[in-house]
Structure formats: C-alpha cells, structure tokens
Amino acid sequence: MRQNFDEKILDPVSFVTGEKEVVYRLPDIPARPPFEECAIAFLNEVSRVLLADTETKKFPDVVTFAFWIRRASLMKLKERFEETDSFRLGRGVVFHIAPSNVPVNFAYSLAAGILTGNANIVRLPSKDFEQVKIIACAWNRALEQYEDMKPYGLLVRYGRQKEINDFFSSMADVRIVWGGDATIAELRKSSLPPRSGEITFADRYSLAVIDGDCYLEQTDKAKVAEGFYNDTFLTDQNACTSPRIVVWRGSRIEEAKAEFWKHLHSLVKERYVIQPVQSVNKLTSACLIAARMPGCRVAGAQDNLIVRVAVPEISRDLMDYKDNSGYFFEYDCADIMELRGLCDNKRCQTIAYIGDRDMFLPLIRAGVKGIDRVVPVGMTLDFDLIWDGYNLPALLTRTVAMK
C-alpha cells in the first residue's frame, strides 16, 4: 500500500526530530520488548536534560513529565506491567495524533510508545507551545548519546492534509488519536491496515468531590489550592481530566466553600492571566445554563477569574453547558448516588476527591458506564499507562505464545 504514495507526499511535513528518510524505513525497524533497558536509559537522559534546563522550571507540566520518565519512576512501571510467563514485543509502528490544547500530552503518548517497544510518529499540536519546544530540544540532545533511538521517536508538524494522514496511517500498526470526537472522525477517514488497531481518546469530562469536613481539617490549604489549580487552570480546564463541577459533601459545606475558593482565588489572581474573550464566554455560559435550568445561581465574586454556578440538581445533560478558564458548576450532595446520572455516561472520565476514596464504591458497583479514574485532588493530570480505561502496555504490544 505504501508504494502507491507520491514520494513528495511528505514535503509539507516539518520534522522537529528525525528526518523524512527515516519514515520510509519505519516498517523495517525491529520491534523491541517492552521496558527494554535502552528505552529506559534514553528516557532517563531526556529527564536529566529537562531537569537541568532552567526553562523547564517555568512549566510545572514539563517538570512533572520529566519526573515521570526518570529511571526510578520507569522501573516502578516496569515492575507493575512486566510479565514473566509470556514474551511480548511492541506492535511495530505507532502513529500518534496529539491534542491541540494540552501542551505536554504528546510527550506522554510518545513515551508510552517508546516504553512498549514501538517506533513512533507523533503529529505535534498545531499551536506553538513553549513546552513542546523545551521537550523536543531535550529529546534531540538525548539522541546525541542514543542514536539507535532515532527511528523510535519522530516528532512532526503538518496541517490537516488527509493525504498525509493516509500515508502515516497506512504504515501504522496502532493509531492513537487524542483531541476529541471531531479529530477522531477526521482521522477515521484514513484507512488502517487490516491487522492494525486504534486507540481513541474522545471528548470527556471530569468532576471533583470534596468532603467539606475533611477539607477543613487540612493543615495546608494553600497546597490543596495549588493542587486544584494544577488540575484546572494549568490547562484552562481544556484537559479531559480537569474538573468542571465541584460536588460538596459533609456537615460544614458553606464554611468549606468559603475557605476553598478564597485560597484558590488568591492563587489564580497571582498566577493566571485571563483574556477578555474568556470572561465573555464564561458570562455567556452562565446565562445559558440559567435559562435552561431554573434555580441556578451565580455565586458572588469580586471579579471574573472564577465563575461558580450553583445548580439545584444534577441532570444528565449538565455537561452540555460546561465551559473552561475557571468556570465551575457547584452542587451540594446528600447521597453519592445522586451523581449516578452524571457518572452513568461514557464521557465521564475522572473523579478528583478530598475525603474517603471508598465513598465512590456504591457508584462503581452500580455499574455506571463512566468513571475510569478516581484520584486525589491535585493528581488528575498525573499520567499513567492505564488511561481512560485502556491498558496501554497490553494494547501497544503483542504476545508471542510459547508452549
């Protein structure tokens, strides 16, 4: 199939790492066992370069990625996912489509492909994020010591040309599509080979559940605020993992709300730069939900950095009215099963919590279609090789049965 493509098809492609000639050799690059030493050593070197770069310290998401690919972290992953009763190899070539609104997502996707023994082509976000430049620079510097890793991680940029998607898809053993429903629909116009697989990360939403009594017992409320800030404002709430609604439980809800939002507002005012269009969008969204759901109330605030809309009930279509950049629904919950409608939806991804993790067991045991992750507040962006309910090491490798 590949030989039917015009040799000039890659001319519009900009290679941030690697070069065009390597692409044509990718189908012949050997697949490797997952968590091979050379992959771990290489990623550890990328981590070292990143953590030594003063520019990295400006971006918490880059720092987090750098720590995630340290040798110590990767060895823990290896221990979790390594199998001793079978022989596994990477699937071959993985074609990744990175989302346009989460700067560091591409790096985690690429690292997952590297760790599972695959050669990788990653279409970078179209937006010129500084984080992408920093990581790509560290990647290229690490390749100076690990030249044999060059064909295993190609970072590319191009427009929305279907013929280029067709070409990369034609050689893919697995295609990973981040970025939502519209991106998935567009990529599915490009055929995959018969034995190839696809992993898609569709539009999702997340929520936070806070036990007010437990929150008020926290000694470092500024640290809690920073964790929630990282979950939400760090990505303008564009990440699927970012909570869109804060659900309150406990006997001291109003007191907890006042403290929680006070600490968060101080941090947002210090760090966050809001654009006029974001303010207008949040006001518009608040008006729309008020017209749709009688009883909604916008909480009083000294500015528009944080917009809180208290809702009288949890409806199944509530998230159709969500927004970002510091826009939150709030709901006071007496019984966790009141969230069943919201969580019985395949779009429901992550629950961030403060309190007892086991409070969600009745929801999960009820067989809801959503909820793929339950993590403490401050950890929603922490990537793991089990993501959106997918076991990536299993999906990105094949098992060689040996009796």
Descriptive overview:
The radius of gyration is 22 Å and the shape is globular. The longest helix has 19 residues, at 253-271. Helix 10 (221-232) crosses helix 11. The protein has helices at 20-25, 37-52, 60-68, 71-81, 105-115, 130-143, 162-170, 181-187, 212-216, 221-232, 253-271, 276-292, 340-343, 361-365, 392-395, and strands spanning 14-17, 87-90, 93-97, 119-123, 154-157, 174-177, 197-200, 205-211, 243-249, 297-298, 307-310, 327-332, 348-354, 373-376, 386-387, 390-391, 397-400. The model has no long low-confidence stretch (mean pLDDT 93). By secondary structure, it is α/β, with parallel strands linked by helices. It contains 15 helices and 17 strands. The relative contact order is 0.13. Helix 6 links the parallel strand 4 (119-123) and strand 5. The strands form four sheets. Strands 10-11-12-9-8-13-14 form a seven-stranded mixed sheet. A six-stranded mixed sheet has the order 1-5-4-3-6-7, with helices on both faces. It has a two-stranded antiparallel ribbon with strand order 2-17.
Radius of gyration: 22 Å
Q: Tell me the total number of β-strands.
A: 17
Distance N to C terminus: 34 Å
* Strand proportion: 15-25%
State the major sheet: 7 strands, mixed
Provide a count of the helices: 15
**Strand order of the biggest β-sheet:** 10-11-12-9-8-13-14
Structural class: alpha/beta
Regions with pLDDT < 50 over 5+ consecutive residues? none
**Range of helix content:** 25-40%
Mean pLDDT: 93
Shape: globular
